[in-house]
Amino acid sequence: MIPLKTRPLDRRTFLRGGGVALALPLLEAMQPRGRAAAAEKPPMRMVCVGNPLGMLPEAFFPAEAGADYTITPALEPLAAHRRDFTLFSHLDHDVTGGHRGVHAFLSGLRDQDASDWPERNISVDQRAAELIGARTRFPSITAGVGHADGDMACRMSWTRNGVNVPPVTKASELFRALFVAEDAEDRRRQAKAHAVNASILDAVRAQANAFHAELGTRDQQKLDEYLTSVREVERKIGMANGWVDQPKPEVELEPPQDGPFTQSLRVFFELLALALQTDSTRVATLEIPGVIDTQNLGLDGGYHGFSHHGKAEVLQRGLLVIEKFQTKELARFLGRLSAMQDADGARMLDRTMVLFGSGMGNGSSHSNKDLPILLAGGGFRHGEHKVYSEQRRAPLCNLYTTMLQRFGVETDKFNKASGTLADFS
User: Fold this and answer.
1) CATH topology (fold) of 46-180+253-407
2) Would you say 372 and 399 are in contact if contact means Cβ atoms under 8 Å apart?
3) Helix (H) or strand (E) holding 107
Protein backbone atom coordinates (compact mmCIF):
# COMPACT_ATOMS: atom_id res chain seq x y z
CA MET A 1 0.00 0.00 0.00
CA ILE A 2 1.42 3.33 -1.03
CA PRO A 3 1.37 5.78 1.88
CA LEU A 4 -0.52 8.98 1.32
CA LYS A 5 1.59 12.10 1.01
CA THR A 6 0.38 14.64 3.49
CA ARG A 7 0.98 18.34 3.17
CA PRO A 8 1.33 20.57 6.20
CA LEU A 9 -1.62 22.78 7.03
CA ASP A 10 -1.29 26.37 5.94
CA ARG A 11 -0.31 28.45 8.98
CA ARG A 12 -3.11 30.83 7.98
CA THR A 13 -5.75 28.08 8.26
CA PHE A 14 -8.95 29.31 9.93
CA LEU A 15 -12.02 27.57 11.33
CA ARG A 16 -15.09 29.15 9.81
CA GLY A 17 -18.68 29.02 10.98
CA GLY A 18 -21.53 31.33 11.80
CA GLY A 19 -19.78 34.20 10.08
CA VAL A 20 -16.78 33.91 12.41
CA ALA A 21 -13.19 33.04 11.45
CA LEU A 22 -11.12 31.63 14.29
CA ALA A 23 -7.37 31.33 13.83
CA LEU A 24 -5.84 28.04 14.85
CA PRO A 25 -2.84 28.09 17.17
CA LEU A 26 0.50 26.97 15.75
CA LEU A 27 -0.06 23.21 15.36
CA GLU A 28 2.29 20.33 14.60
CA ALA A 29 0.27 19.77 11.43
CA MET A 30 1.37 23.20 10.24
CA GLN A 31 5.02 22.15 10.43
CA PRO A 32 6.74 20.41 7.49
CA ARG A 33 7.11 16.67 7.97
CA GLY A 34 10.10 14.35 7.76
CA ARG A 35 13.41 15.90 6.85
CA ALA A 36 11.89 19.32 6.37
CA ALA A 37 10.51 19.26 9.90
CA ALA A 38 13.96 18.59 11.28
CA ALA A 39 15.34 21.50 9.27
CA GLU A 40 12.53 23.95 10.07
CA LYS A 41 12.18 24.38 13.80
CA PRO A 42 9.29 26.20 15.47
CA PRO A 43 9.94 29.94 15.29
CA MET A 44 12.08 31.91 17.70
CA ARG A 45 10.63 35.10 19.14
CA MET A 46 12.00 38.25 20.77
CA VAL A 47 10.48 40.68 23.26
CA CYS A 48 12.41 43.70 24.58
CA VAL A 49 11.13 45.63 27.61
CA GLY A 50 12.75 48.81 28.85
CA ASN A 51 12.38 51.94 30.95
CA PRO A 52 14.26 55.26 30.58
CA LEU A 53 15.41 55.63 34.21
CA GLY A 54 17.43 52.48 34.86
CA MET A 55 17.30 50.41 38.03
CA LEU A 56 18.62 51.17 41.50
CA PRO A 57 22.02 49.44 41.13
CA GLU A 58 22.37 48.18 44.70
CA ALA A 59 18.82 46.77 44.57
CA PHE A 60 19.26 45.14 41.15
CA PHE A 61 22.76 43.68 40.82
CA PRO A 62 23.64 40.75 43.13
CA ALA A 63 26.87 40.91 45.09
CA GLU A 64 27.87 37.41 43.97
CA ALA A 65 28.61 36.05 40.50
CA GLY A 66 27.52 32.64 39.27
CA ALA A 67 24.46 30.53 40.00
CA ASP A 68 24.40 30.88 43.79
CA TYR A 69 23.84 34.62 43.97
CA THR A 70 21.52 36.07 46.59
CA ILE A 71 18.35 37.40 45.02
CA THR A 72 18.24 41.19 45.29
CA PRO A 73 15.24 43.30 46.38
CA ALA A 74 14.35 44.44 42.85
CA LEU A 75 14.48 40.85 41.63
CA GLU A 76 12.45 39.27 44.44
CA PRO A 77 9.28 39.07 42.30
CA LEU A 78 11.30 37.05 39.76
CA ALA A 79 12.71 34.56 42.27
CA ALA A 80 10.52 31.70 41.06
CA HIS A 81 11.93 32.13 37.54
CA ARG A 82 15.62 32.49 38.43
CA ARG A 83 16.54 29.34 36.46
CA ASP A 84 14.93 30.89 33.40
CA PHE A 85 16.93 34.12 33.23
CA THR A 86 20.47 35.46 33.31
CA LEU A 87 21.71 38.72 34.82
CA PHE A 88 24.63 40.62 33.31
CA SER A 89 26.99 43.08 35.00
CA HIS A 90 29.34 45.58 33.33
CA LEU A 91 27.65 45.63 29.92
CA ASP A 92 26.87 48.93 28.22
CA HIS A 93 27.29 50.85 24.96
CA ASP A 94 30.09 53.24 25.99
CA VAL A 95 27.85 56.25 25.40
CA THR A 96 27.21 59.34 27.47
CA GLY A 97 24.45 61.92 27.61
CA GLY A 98 22.32 60.75 30.51
CA HIS A 99 18.69 60.97 29.41
CA ARG A 100 19.86 61.75 25.87
CA GLY A 101 21.79 58.49 25.73
CA VAL A 102 18.88 56.28 26.79
CA HIS A 103 17.54 55.83 23.27
CA ALA A 104 20.71 53.85 22.40
CA PHE A 105 19.45 50.99 24.60
CA LEU A 106 18.59 48.56 21.80
CA SER A 107 20.93 49.91 19.13
CA GLY A 108 24.18 50.81 20.87
CA LEU A 109 24.26 54.16 19.10
CA ARG A 110 22.78 57.58 19.72
CA ASP A 111 20.94 58.82 16.66
CA GLN A 112 23.30 61.77 16.26
CA ASP A 113 26.30 59.41 16.11
CA ALA A 114 24.85 56.89 13.68
CA SER A 115 25.41 58.36 10.22
CA ASP A 116 28.79 56.68 9.66
CA TRP A 117 27.61 53.19 10.62
CA PRO A 118 26.54 50.76 7.87
CA GLU A 119 23.15 50.03 9.45
CA ARG A 120 22.84 53.40 11.18
CA ASN A 121 21.33 52.95 14.63
CA ILE A 122 18.96 50.13 13.78
CA SER A 123 17.74 48.49 16.99
CA VAL A 124 18.03 44.78 17.68
CA ASP A 125 14.26 44.27 17.47
CA GLN A 126 14.04 45.87 14.03
CA ARG A 127 17.04 43.87 12.82
CA ALA A 128 15.19 40.72 13.86
CA ALA A 129 11.94 41.98 12.31
CA GLU A 130 13.67 42.34 8.94
CA LEU A 131 14.17 38.57 8.94
CA ILE A 132 10.47 37.97 9.58
CA GLY A 133 9.12 40.29 6.90
CA ALA A 134 5.60 39.33 5.84
CA ARG A 135 5.59 35.91 7.52
CA THR A 136 3.46 37.43 10.28
CA ARG A 137 0.80 40.13 10.09
CA PHE A 138 3.07 42.45 12.07
CA PRO A 139 6.82 42.10 11.43
CA SER A 140 7.17 43.77 14.82
CA ILE A 141 5.02 45.43 17.46
CA THR A 142 6.22 48.55 19.24
CA ALA A 143 4.13 49.30 22.32
CA GLY A 144 4.36 51.78 25.16
CA VAL A 145 2.46 51.94 28.44
CA GLY A 146 1.22 55.48 28.02
CA HIS A 147 2.58 58.51 26.24
CA ALA A 148 5.78 60.35 27.17
CA ASP A 149 7.83 63.04 25.46
CA GLY A 150 11.45 64.11 25.56
CA ASP A 151 13.69 62.66 28.24
CA MET A 152 10.87 60.59 29.75
CA ALA A 153 10.37 58.59 26.56
CA CYS A 154 12.35 55.42 25.86
CA ARG A 155 12.51 55.71 22.06
CA MET A 156 13.77 52.12 21.94
CA SER A 157 12.97 51.02 18.40
CA TRP A 158 14.83 52.36 15.35
CA THR A 159 14.93 51.44 11.65
CA ARG A 160 18.10 51.11 9.62
CA ASN A 161 17.32 54.55 8.19
CA GLY A 162 17.64 56.14 11.62
CA VAL A 163 13.89 56.63 12.08
CA ASN A 164 12.38 56.12 15.52
CA VAL A 165 9.39 53.75 15.49
CA PRO A 166 6.71 55.34 17.71
CA PRO A 167 4.92 53.01 20.11
CA VAL A 168 1.23 52.22 20.32
CA THR A 169 0.43 53.74 23.70
CA LYS A 170 -3.16 52.62 24.29
CA ALA A 171 -3.98 49.01 25.07
CA SER A 172 -7.36 49.41 23.37
CA GLU A 173 -5.66 50.42 20.11
CA LEU A 174 -3.24 47.50 20.25
CA PHE A 175 -6.11 45.08 20.95
CA ARG A 176 -8.03 46.51 17.99
CA ALA A 177 -5.05 46.16 15.65
CA LEU A 178 -4.38 42.59 16.75
CA PHE A 179 -7.79 41.03 17.20
CA VAL A 180 -10.73 43.16 16.01
CA ALA A 181 -11.89 42.04 12.58
CA GLU A 182 -12.50 44.64 9.89
CA ASP A 183 -15.59 44.44 7.73
CA ALA A 184 -15.42 44.36 3.94
CA GLU A 185 -15.62 48.14 3.68
CA ASP A 186 -12.70 48.57 6.11
CA ARG A 187 -10.62 46.13 4.08
CA ARG A 188 -11.42 47.93 0.84
CA ARG A 189 -10.49 51.22 2.47
CA GLN A 190 -7.17 49.77 3.65
CA ALA A 191 -6.35 48.35 0.23
CA LYS A 192 -7.22 51.68 -1.42
CA ALA A 193 -5.06 53.60 1.06
CA HIS A 194 -2.14 51.27 0.39
CA ALA A 195 -2.57 51.75 -3.36
CA VAL A 196 -2.72 55.55 -3.03
CA ASN A 197 0.35 55.61 -0.81
CA ALA A 198 2.23 53.37 -3.23
CA SER A 199 1.40 55.62 -6.18
CA ILE A 200 2.51 58.71 -4.24
CA LEU A 201 5.80 57.04 -3.43
CA ASP A 202 6.25 56.05 -7.08
CA ALA A 203 5.81 59.69 -8.12
CA VAL A 204 8.17 60.95 -5.41
CA ARG A 205 10.85 58.46 -6.40
CA ALA A 206 10.52 59.30 -10.09
CA GLN A 207 10.91 63.02 -9.43
CA ALA A 208 13.85 62.47 -7.11
CA ASN A 209 15.65 60.29 -9.65
CA ALA A 210 15.09 62.94 -12.32
CA PHE A 211 17.21 65.61 -10.61
CA HIS A 212 19.67 63.29 -8.83
CA ALA A 213 22.45 64.01 -11.33
CA GLU A 214 22.07 67.78 -10.86
CA LEU A 215 23.03 67.63 -7.18
CA GLY A 216 26.39 67.83 -5.49
CA THR A 217 27.97 64.78 -3.88
CA ARG A 218 26.71 65.44 -0.35
CA ASP A 219 23.19 66.21 -1.55
CA GLN A 220 23.24 63.04 -3.64
CA GLN A 221 24.12 61.08 -0.51
CA LYS A 222 21.25 62.68 1.40
CA LEU A 223 18.88 61.98 -1.48
CA ASP A 224 20.04 58.36 -1.63
CA GLU A 225 19.26 58.01 2.07
CA TYR A 226 15.84 59.49 1.44
CA LEU A 227 15.17 57.12 -1.45
CA THR A 228 16.21 54.22 0.74
CA SER A 229 13.57 55.33 3.22
CA VAL A 230 11.01 55.50 0.41
CA ARG A 231 11.85 51.95 -0.66
CA GLU A 232 11.48 50.78 2.94
CA VAL A 233 8.01 52.32 3.15
CA GLU A 234 7.08 50.69 -0.16
CA ARG A 235 8.25 47.33 1.17
CA LYS A 236 6.09 47.72 4.28
CA ILE A 237 3.07 48.69 2.18
CA GLY A 238 3.58 45.55 0.11
CA MET A 239 3.75 43.39 3.23
CA ALA A 240 0.64 44.99 4.71
CA ASN A 241 -1.27 44.44 1.46
CA GLY A 242 -0.71 40.71 1.75
CA TRP A 243 -2.63 40.62 5.04
CA VAL A 244 -5.61 42.85 4.20
CA ASP A 245 -7.89 39.92 3.35
CA GLN A 246 -6.58 37.55 6.02
CA PRO A 247 -8.92 37.21 9.03
CA LYS A 248 -7.49 38.19 12.39
CA PRO A 249 -7.34 35.66 15.22
CA GLU A 250 -9.97 35.70 17.94
CA VAL A 251 -8.99 35.46 21.58
CA GLU A 252 -10.88 34.96 24.81
CA LEU A 253 -10.19 38.44 26.12
CA GLU A 254 -12.59 41.31 26.54
CA PRO A 255 -11.55 44.53 24.79
CA PRO A 256 -9.43 46.33 27.40
CA GLN A 257 -10.24 49.70 28.88
CA ASP A 258 -7.40 52.21 28.92
CA GLY A 259 -6.54 52.82 32.56
CA PRO A 260 -3.63 54.00 34.70
CA PHE A 261 -0.15 52.57 34.39
CA THR A 262 -0.66 50.09 37.21
CA GLN A 263 -3.50 48.48 35.24
CA SER A 264 -2.18 48.98 31.73
CA LEU A 265 1.24 47.36 32.18
CA ARG A 266 -0.33 43.97 32.88
CA VAL A 267 -2.76 44.38 29.98
CA PHE A 268 0.05 45.20 27.55
CA PHE A 269 2.03 42.16 28.67
CA GLU A 270 -1.08 39.99 28.18
CA LEU A 271 -1.67 41.38 24.70
CA LEU A 272 1.93 40.68 23.72
CA ALA A 273 1.67 37.12 25.04
CA LEU A 274 -1.45 36.57 22.93
CA ALA A 275 0.18 38.19 19.90
CA LEU A 276 3.03 35.70 20.17
CA GLN A 277 0.71 32.75 20.81
CA THR A 278 -1.40 33.53 17.72
CA ASP A 279 1.75 34.17 15.66
CA SER A 280 0.52 37.67 14.87
CA THR A 281 4.11 38.77 15.46
CA ARG A 282 7.40 37.29 16.61
CA VAL A 283 9.10 40.54 17.61
CA ALA A 284 7.88 43.12 20.12
CA THR A 285 9.10 45.96 22.29
CA LEU A 286 7.38 47.39 25.35
CA GLU A 287 8.36 50.84 26.60
CA ILE A 288 7.75 51.84 30.22
CA PRO A 289 7.78 55.67 30.27
CA GLY A 290 9.37 57.87 32.89
CA VAL A 291 6.03 59.53 33.61
CA ILE A 292 3.62 57.14 35.32
CA ASP A 293 0.81 57.22 37.87
CA THR A 294 2.46 56.32 41.19
CA GLN A 295 -0.50 57.06 43.47
CA ASN A 296 -1.88 53.57 42.90
CA LEU A 297 1.42 52.24 44.23
CA GLY A 298 0.92 54.20 47.44
CA LEU A 299 3.53 56.81 46.58
CA ASP A 300 3.48 60.59 46.70
CA GLY A 301 5.79 61.76 43.95
CA GLY A 302 6.80 61.09 40.36
CA TYR A 303 8.88 58.24 38.95
CA HIS A 304 11.47 60.68 37.64
CA GLY A 305 11.71 62.44 40.99
CA PHE A 306 12.29 59.17 42.84
CA SER A 307 15.06 58.27 40.37
CA HIS A 308 16.92 61.44 41.44
CA HIS A 309 17.20 60.10 44.96
CA GLY A 310 20.70 61.39 45.74
CA LYS A 311 20.96 58.34 48.06
CA ALA A 312 18.12 59.65 50.24
CA GLU A 313 16.61 56.51 51.76
CA VAL A 314 13.00 57.63 51.53
CA LEU A 315 13.36 58.28 47.80
CA GLN A 316 15.24 55.02 47.24
CA ARG A 317 12.44 53.13 48.96
CA GLY A 318 9.89 54.79 46.69
CA LEU A 319 11.96 54.01 43.61
CA LEU A 320 12.24 50.38 44.66
CA VAL A 321 8.44 50.15 44.91
CA ILE A 322 8.17 51.29 41.28
CA GLU A 323 10.91 48.96 40.10
CA LYS A 324 9.50 45.94 41.94
CA PHE A 325 6.14 46.60 40.33
CA GLN A 326 7.84 46.37 36.93
CA THR A 327 9.63 43.12 37.78
CA LYS A 328 6.44 41.68 39.30
CA GLU A 329 4.59 42.20 36.03
CA LEU A 330 7.60 40.89 34.10
CA ALA A 331 7.50 37.75 36.27
CA ARG A 332 3.82 37.30 35.46
CA PHE A 333 4.62 37.61 31.74
CA LEU A 334 7.35 34.96 32.01
CA GLY A 335 4.87 32.74 33.83
CA ARG A 336 2.34 33.16 31.00
CA LEU A 337 4.93 32.22 28.38
CA SER A 338 6.01 29.24 30.49
CA ALA A 339 2.42 27.99 30.60
CA MET A 340 1.87 28.39 26.85
CA GLN A 341 2.87 25.48 24.62
CA ASP A 342 4.54 25.78 21.26
CA ALA A 343 3.56 23.59 18.30
CA ASP A 344 5.83 20.76 19.44
CA GLY A 345 4.74 20.90 23.08
CA ALA A 346 7.72 22.92 24.30
CA ARG A 347 7.24 25.95 26.53
CA MET A 348 6.80 29.11 24.52
CA LEU A 349 9.28 30.77 26.88
CA ASP A 350 11.98 28.44 25.59
CA ARG A 351 11.43 29.89 22.11
CA THR A 352 11.01 33.49 23.25
CA MET A 353 13.91 35.72 24.26
CA VAL A 354 12.69 38.30 26.77
CA LEU A 355 15.11 41.17 27.39
CA PHE A 356 14.52 43.58 30.27
CA GLY A 357 16.67 46.62 30.96
CA SER A 358 17.37 50.27 30.26
CA GLY A 359 19.70 52.61 28.44
CA MET A 360 20.23 54.33 31.80
CA GLY A 361 22.50 52.67 34.34
CA ASN A 362 21.94 54.97 37.30
CA GLY A 363 19.16 57.53 37.10
CA SER A 364 20.42 59.51 40.08
CA SER A 365 23.84 60.18 38.54
CA HIS A 366 22.58 60.13 34.93
CA SER A 367 25.11 57.41 34.08
CA ASN A 368 24.79 55.29 30.96
CA LYS A 369 27.37 52.82 32.28
CA ASP A 370 26.72 49.36 33.75
CA LEU A 371 23.25 48.99 32.32
CA PRO A 372 20.77 46.75 34.17
CA ILE A 373 20.31 43.80 31.82
CA LEU A 374 18.26 40.64 32.27
CA LEU A 375 17.60 38.07 29.55
CA ALA A 376 15.06 35.28 29.99
CA GLY A 377 13.99 32.34 27.85
CA GLY A 378 15.11 31.67 24.30
CA GLY A 379 16.61 28.28 25.09
CA PHE A 380 19.80 29.67 26.63
CA ARG A 381 21.49 28.10 29.64
CA HIS A 382 20.23 30.40 32.37
CA GLY A 383 20.34 30.71 36.13
CA GLU A 384 23.50 32.78 36.60
CA HIS A 385 24.73 36.27 37.28
CA LYS A 386 27.37 36.87 34.61
CA VAL A 387 29.96 39.43 35.71
CA TYR A 388 32.22 40.72 32.95
CA SER A 389 35.44 42.68 33.28
CA GLU A 390 34.96 46.23 34.46
CA GLN A 391 38.23 47.24 32.79
CA ARG A 392 37.94 45.36 29.47
CA ARG A 393 34.27 46.10 29.02
CA ALA A 394 32.32 43.82 26.71
CA PRO A 395 29.89 45.73 24.48
CA LEU A 396 26.22 45.09 25.20
CA CYS A 397 25.91 44.70 21.43
CA ASN A 398 27.80 41.42 21.83
CA LEU A 399 24.77 40.08 23.68
CA TYR A 400 22.53 41.44 20.94
CA THR A 401 24.64 39.64 18.34
CA THR A 402 24.18 36.42 20.29
CA MET A 403 20.43 37.05 20.43
CA LEU A 404 20.20 37.76 16.71
CA GLN A 405 22.07 34.58 15.88
CA ARG A 406 19.71 32.62 18.11
CA PHE A 407 16.83 34.30 16.30
CA GLY A 408 18.18 33.10 12.96
CA VAL A 409 19.85 36.24 11.62
CA GLU A 410 23.11 35.45 9.83
CA THR A 411 25.47 38.05 11.24
CA ASP A 412 28.89 38.15 12.89
CA LYS A 413 28.32 41.43 14.69
CA PHE A 414 25.60 43.95 15.43
CA ASN A 415 26.50 47.64 15.41
CA LYS A 416 29.20 48.19 18.08
CA ALA A 417 29.73 44.49 18.79
CA SER A 418 33.18 42.93 18.72
CA GLY A 419 31.58 39.50 18.31
CA THR A 420 29.22 37.38 20.37
CA LEU A 421 29.09 37.48 24.16
CA ALA A 422 31.69 35.24 25.77
CA ASP A 423 30.61 32.49 28.18
CA PHE A 424 26.93 32.66 27.31
CA SER A 425 25.02 30.31 25.06
Assistant:
1) Alkaline Phosphatase, subunit A (3.40.720)
2) no
3) none
